[in-house]
Structure formats: structure tokens, C-alpha cells
Amino acid sequence: MKKISYVLRAVIFILIIFLIIQPKKKIYRVRNIPTVAVLIDYSQSMQSTSDKNNFLKLTKKIISEITGSLKINPVFFKFSDELKNISASEIEKLTAKGLRTDITGTLEKINKEFLGKELDAVILFSDGNQNVEKSADEVIKEFSELDIPIIAVVPQAVLSQKNISIGKIDVPDVVFRNVGLVLSAKINTYGFVGEKISVYLKSEDTVLQSKSLDIVNSGTTGVDFDIKPQIAGHINYSIEIPTYSGEQNIYDNKKKFVLDVEPEKIRVLYLCGQPSFNYSFLRNTLKNDPNIELVSFVILRNPENIVPVSDNELSLIPFPVEDIFSKEIFNFDLLILDNFNYSRFPINYQHLVNIKNFITVNGKSLFIISGEIPLSVYQNTPVAELLPVIPSPEIISEKFCLTVLYPEHGILKLADDVSSNNYIWKGMPELAGINVSSVGEKSVVLAKSEKSNYPVIAIAEKGKGRVMCITTSSLWRLALGSENPYSYVKLIGQSVKWLTNAASIKQVVIFAKKSYNINDTAALKIRVKDEYFKPVSNASVRLEMTSPDGIKERIEVFPETESGEYGTNVELNASGEYKIYVTAFDKKRFLGSDKNSFTVFNISRESEDTNINDQFMREIADKTAGKFFAVDNFNIEKSDIKPKTQKSDVLYEINIWDKTPIYLILIFLFAVEWFLRRKSGLL
Amino acid sequence: MKKFNLWLILFFTLHFTLYTLHCLYAQQGGKFVFAQLSYSGNWDPRPGVWDRISEFLTMSTSVKSIQERQIVTVKDEELFWLPFLVITGDSDFGKFSDNEIKIIIKYIQCGGMIFIDDSSGKKGSGFDKAIRDTVNRISPENPLERIPTTDAILKSFYLLQNVSGRVITNRYFEGCKIGERYSIIYSQNDLLGVWEKDNLGNYIYPCDDKQRWEAKKMTINIILYALTGTYKSDTIHLPFIKSKLK
What is the ipTM of this complex? Predict the structure, then answer.
């Protein structure tokens, strides 16, 4: 009896525990059919890779293999540069008319689309011709990590087509005039094994070079062209291959590109009135700058100097005044006049007008140094109008420290952070000798003498060009007398960059690619800085674009997250040269302007390369543990798509203890136990 | 009262000397200064040469120079106002301290140039040994090397075929090349000795006239080299110089 009572109590205790914790039984939905995203590339290249019915065959295959299949649960999407959900019934009506192919972007969007939902595999129907510039590595890695295989299906058996196309052309970022470079192009060939094909490099329809390629294997073959651009500017080139018999697409045998050829280097003409340490230091610095091509003349002997030897024993050469000031000057980017007294040479008024035009009309630059010979020698000449200072004939021989007025200006910025820059300038050594002057109209004094307040470094924009003036011949002290001679080198380098308006030191710069294809979207970026080179975030930026038909239109630009940067996207619907011009103001204060241009080729991205990029498709399949098929061989069985997990979300839950009979049993057990105890005389 | 006057005189003399020195350094921004190093040894065996050189330099070239020779020690701050430094001597001298060597290294690296002239005119002299040891400490990575006769030094003003001096100890000068130019030039030919004259205007050290003339031209070339660097090696000069040398 006692034992029965114990058992009853134990059962009652367990029942009470279960009633407290209320355990539930979960009933899961069992997934035997995998969910598959079916991506159909409907870009134009899907049609032109083969006969006109090619895309139709593909859609029919999709309908027959997938829509009727009970083995997968398909969710259909069409894509070119955008992804759209479509129903199974829409597939039949689908035509290949998309203007771009963005496989990478599509996979990214699919990943987001199925965030928090079950996705077991992706079937990708595409020719693999990604023509939106994006790296696929990240997104492929993501699919691999999520364990979602991508089944890559190309429109037809890869090697059955016969075609030649020009793939990627590698062009160096910076190209200089008269400097050799290598243009590397990838030529894709299918069905031409054992044959020879000719490849031409052309510029404006003139054949520059030709190469003969022996095709050993189908696929990609590289070809290099060594060229040396002879002229600077925006030069159109193309790589072309003649059409060979049996080619399926004749439009991808030509690829155009643009080289923006810079002048070799910054060409500097340095004229110095007398040998001096200033000349020695400045010449040495310019000579060691790999971006500068220096031609210098220093006057070693004046007419009053007597040399007791014949001319043949001297290394002196005649100073070619006429050549320099009439012709050669215009081949340079920067003219340096260092204590150069023009009146001692047969330099006439027209020569001085040429100097002025060189700056104001041709947009070149002048760097003028005094300190031994005052700048007042140029008074009442066209050069005087260029000077950022109003000079006096007086040269005072005081020693002085520099007071830097605009340490953040691109010329004077010797360190990235403000405090380090100020520290460098405070530690600069004393200079000596100064040409007394006052600041000129519309000029900026960057540094002055601490004692006398006379301008030492002054700048101005004159017409299209720029002028910088140094009123001392002892700037070399910043090298010899300072802790770090590199500060002097940097100062000179930055001065040359500012003077020649190098992009790195422009206040307002607009960036664009050099060439686009028709229907591309150009992403234009504008960077705006003030005269002290601080980014301006609330500038009024005006962008004008002149399209190939000469129509000028204003484009709205928007501030970007990065301080001082602005941008906009422009749809390019016409081919030819586009010119862009930007101006920026900060509360009516002009900050600067810049211009750029780019070419739009009348070749759509889709017709540029119509070969099937099976390598890319195979890579996607391999890296995500998927499979690769030509469409004829594709079927769902072979794809081996399985659900990632058999159980998915909870279908329903059963709370087995939350029931009336349980309570009744419990009451009954209590009653029996009470009865047994009473019977045993325990109560 | 007398004591006060003496102090007054001393004060004005000192003030005048400091003012003169200040003016000299202040006005030299764009002018050539002949600076000579004073060190522990016979540092000035040719004390009067600069007057002669200066006169000739001003007469024959467009170089503007300061008349007075500047004498500095390594530790003088003024050293860094003087991009051209002459070291002369004729005998062994005490070693420069490590600190002094550091200063000279900085001087060279910041763009200074040193011309060394062994006035003894003898191979293996005490000065030669001591100065070679010093140069090795200053420029261990770019030791002294023979300067080729095609270098810009030999054509910076006069077109010269060979080096010269009061004596021809070597048919070459040596130098330490840093970057594209020689920052240290070393002559063992007592180059400056050819300029030295007595108060009556007679040359103190005998030498063949032609040799003396060539040495004078070489001196001018060294100064022009200090002021123009490798200017005469620029492409624009080459055809002219070649045709003249024919």
C-alpha cells in the first residue's frame, strides 16, 4: 500500500511540473521541394549570339524544363541592368531587348530579395557578358558562404559558334606625349583554330599598326601594340579585326577607346640673370623632379665682363632671344624669370607682349623671382600687368622670418594636418634680402616678411594663366638652413603644380571617364575646395554639358557624403564628344572652374562583345558548388538541386498539457492518494 | 673717466663688428660668398687668395660676390648661410668630433658644397691622410672617386681638357657625387696657391705661366659649378660645346 502511495505521489509531482512548464510539441513543415530563383538574362546579346530564334529556344527550354517541373519551386526573374520579378506565363513573351548585362548586380539583388526567406539554389540563364563594371568576387563568395549553388546555363553549346570579338583593352591611366606605352587587347576567337587573323590598331581611320595572330586554341588570345603618341590631347583609337567568313556577329570586331595624352612632362623654361645659389638650388630641385622637363639659361657673362681668352675657350652659348621669346616660349608650360633684367638683352616690346599672351591667352604660367634685381625693371611693360605685387626699385638687405598667411594653401601645405604644417613653417630659417613691394590688385599674399610686412610669396590668376612671385633670392635657405631640406623641394614642387594648374592642386576639378558606350550612364564627380584648399560642402556648383549636337544644357549636381564632393549621373543617349564645364561659387565668391570632355561611341555594350563568356559562367558555378550547362544539355534532374534543410518553419505547435483531461486525471490521482492515506490511517 | 671711455670704445667696436657681420650675412642672399673653414690645424695657408679670385671673378663673369671672405667653424650657425665652403691645409690636423661630422653631413645633404685643396701639393701628405679620413666619415656611401674630364666642372665656364694647379700632383680631381652633382671636390694640386701674391703684387709660389692660367680658369669653373651645378651638361649646350672642342 505504501509503495502504491509513493508511486501515486511521484506521478502527481511529475504532472504538476509538466503543468508548470507547459511543454509543447512542434510540428514542422517538411520541405521536399527546393525553392529556386530562376534568373533570365534578356539583354540584347542573348539574341545576337546566334540565329534570331536563339532566345526563343532558350525561353522554350525554360518553360519545358522548369515551369512544368514538380521537383523545384521556381521564382522567376528577368534581368539586364535591373532585376524584375516575372510570372511563368510572361516567359513566353520575353524578348531580348535589355541594354546592359549586370550579372553581379543581379546576384546582389537576389541575395537581398531572399533575405530571411528560404533559397536553395539559383539557375542563371545568361551568356556571361557582364558589361557593367563591377567585381563579382564578393557576391560569388557570399553565395558560396550561404551554401546556395548557382546553376549557370549558357544559351548554346559554347564551341558550336564561330566568332571573333575584341575583349578587354588595357590602357595605362597616364599617357604622356612621346613616351612609349603598351596597349594590350584580349581577342576572343571561336571556330578559327589553325587560322591566322589580322588585328589593326587605328587612329581616326588611319592604320597605325597591324599584327597577325596564329590561333592555336579557341578562347582568349592576347595581342600587344607598342605605341608612342605624338600629339597631346584627346585621341581616339580603335582596335579592329576584318570580318572573317562564317562569323556570327560582325559588330564585335571593332572596339574604340580614347587616350588622354598629356604633354610629356611639365615643360619649364628657366631664365636666370646671373649665377647664384638661388639658381643652383632651384635648378637642382627642378632637375630632380621626374615630372618636369627643364630647359634653363643662366647668363654667365655680361657685355661689360672681360674674358682674356677667345670665345672658343669658353663654354658659353649665345642667348637665343628671338627664338625663345617669339617661338619657343609657347612650347613651355611655365616660364621662370629669376633676377632677369630684360633690358640688358635685345628683348623688344613684342617679346614682352608674347610673355603676357603666354600667360593670359595661352593659359600658361609665370614664376618670377627678384631679390637681386628689382621687379621694378618691368615697370610700364606688359609684364608689369602680370605681377601679383607692385614693386619698388628698393632692395633691403634685412634678415627676416616668413609669416605664412595661408598655411592651408596648396602651395604652402607641407604636412597633412594643420598643426604639423604650422610647426614646420614656424621652424623655417631666416631669409635675407627683399625687394620692397606691395600687394597687387586681385592678388593673394601667401607669405610676408615678419618684420617689414612686405610680400615675399604672392600669387595671382591673370587671364587664363597663373603667376607666382618671390621677392627674395634667398629661398634656398629653406633647404640649407632648415632641419628638413625636403620642405624646400615640396614647396617648389607644389608651386609648379599650382602654376601649371595640375589636377592635384586645382580648387575645382571635374572627373569623368574618357570614353563611354551609347546608353551608358556617366557618373560625374566634382571636387570643390576654397583658396586655402579646404573642402567646401555648401558650394553653389553649376555644371553645363554640351552634347555632340552642340546643345548646351545645365545639369543639376548633388552634394555627396564626402565633404566638398558633388556628383551626378547623366544618361548618354547620343554618340560623339561631350564637353562638360563646371564652375563653383561660395556665396557669390568664385572658387574656380574646370572643364573636361569625353567621347561616347555608337556601340552599345551589348553588341560590343557577343561571345559567350563561358569562363565567367563556369567560375560562378564552380565557386558556388553549382553546375555549368549549355542550354541544350540542361535539365533539372542533372542539376541536382536539393533543399538546404528538410524542415523549414514551424507549421503549428501542440500544447499537450494544456488540456482538461489532464487536470481531471490530476484531481483523480489526488483523490485516490487521499483515499489510500485515509484507509491506512495516515490522516 | 678713462675706464668709461675704454668701455665705450670696446662697446662700439663690438657693436660695429656684430653689425658688419649681420650685414654681410644679410646681404648675401643672392650673392656668392667665399667661405673658408677654420679648424684645429693650419687651416689658412693661402690667406690672401680670395681677394685675387674675387677681382678676377667679377671682371670675367656675371657672378655677384661679396668682397670679404667668410671664416666659419663647423659649429657656427652661419655655416648654413654659406652654401660653398673651402677647406684648405698643408699638414695633419685634429680629428673632427662626431658631432662636427654630423653637422657637415647635414650641410652636404641640405645642398651645401665643399671644395678641399691640399696646399702641400704632395701625395700622401699629412693633410691628405687626415682629409681622406674625414671625407670617409662624411660620405661613406659615396666615397671619393675620380672626376672624369667630361664632367660639367671642366666646362662650367672655361672649356678645360685637364685639371691644373700650382703643382700637378694628380692629373685629376676627386669628388663625392651625391645626386647628379659632386658635393665634395678634392684637389691635391694646391689650386689656390697659384693666386697668392705678396704686397708688391708678385706671385709668391713659382709656377709655369700656362699652368697658372689653367689653374685660375679651373678655380673659376669650380665657383661657377657651385652656382650652376650641371648646367653645362644640359642637352641644349652639348652641340655648341662639341663644336668648340673640335
Answer: 0.88
